[in-house]
Every structure is written in structure tokens, then in C-alpha cells.
Fold:
Amino acid sequence: MAVEAVGVDIASLVLRVSLGGTLLAHGWNHAWGGGRIAGTAGWFESMGLRPGRLHALMATGTELGAGVLLLLGLVTPLAAAGAVGTMAVAFVTAHLRNGFFIFRPGQGYEYVLMIIMVACGLGALGGGTVSLDNALGLSDELSGWAGLAITALAGGLGAALLLAVFWRPAKQPAEN
Structure:
């Protein structure tokens, strides 16, 4: 039995709303929750992302912008690449050393990995029928293997470039 197109459209809409809403919540929290940009900047600095304020502003802007674009279904693979990029940086800087499970001390990487994989899947699915991509006639060009490639490469290469240029973690003392 073949998957009906309406099922793909529903899946895309559900994933766009959930991922877009999650990114908006993350960006909102960085900007206006708890410690705001200054607190986020201090946290980023403590992980070796310098200058912290620049990275706090970039992460906040990326999460807010990508969240809105995903909710609208506009340039869906590029918006999903924003999720891949921000979560890939979080994966490397904050979670990888703590193992897989999020309940481990320091929080493992399972959550950020799931966001990365959902974003890649959404890049492949495209915006679906209920999207601005579809209304603008971009759905065919921005889905399938091309959508996945845009999402994974733009997000992954963006994260790799950021880490190569800016990430300078503190040296850990040698174990005896």
C-alpha cells in the first residue's frame, strides 16, 4: 500500500508546528527568559563559545527566525537547517561528553540528536500542501533528496564552521 499524499502533508504540518514551536520557545527563552541575552551569553562563554554575546544573539535569532519560517512553511529546508546547526553546536559543546540519555548528569545528547534528525526528515518532506513553499510553487524544488541535502549540509557545515572559528573550550586537567 502506497502512502497517500495527504498523509505526507499531515506529517509535514505536524513536524513543522512542533519543531517550529520548539525553536520559538528556545529562542524566546534565550532572549526573554531567566537570564536573558546576558545570561545566555555567560553560559555560552562558559562552554568556550566566545564572544558569548555574539553567540547568544546568533542562536536566539536563528531559533526565532527558523521557528517562524517552519510555522509558515517558508523555505522549509533552510529553516530546518537552522535547527540542525544550532542543535549540532549544542550537541558538541554541551551534551556529547555526557553520554546519550538526557537524564544523565549534565544532560546527554538524545534530545538535541532527535531535533537534528526530525529537522533532517522535515527537510526531506518539505513544507507540504499547507505551506508558503507550496503557495509560492517551491515545494517540488525544496523537498526530497534536495531538501535533505540543503538541510543537512547547510546546518552541518554552518555548525562546523562556527565551531572551528569560535569554539575554544577550557583545557581539562589530565587524569592520573
Observations:
- Helices lie at 5-32, 36-46, 52-72, 76-95, 110-125, 132-135, 144-166.
